[in-house]
Amino acid sequence: MRYAVYWDELASEVRRCTWFYKGDKDNKYVPYSESFSQVLEETYMLAVTLDEWKKKL
């Protein structure tokens, strides 16, 4: 949950919006496709749960 510090506001849920990447020659971040973002999200949740971080997709 997120709570405002400097003004009155109801608490709100914190959410990630999407996954991004930046290639070696890119100047800005580019969003992954929704389908690959779903794979990343599932893999991330598994890594958090199992505490296993080094995995290539």
From TrEMBL:
Xref: InterPro entries: WWE_SEC23-DDH2
Pfam families noted in UniProt: WWE_3
SEC23-DDH2 WWE domain mapped to chain residues: 21-57
This protein's name: DDHD2 isoform 24
Natural source organism: Pan troglodytes
Lineage of producing organism: Eukaryota, Metazoa, Chordata, Craniata, Vertebrata
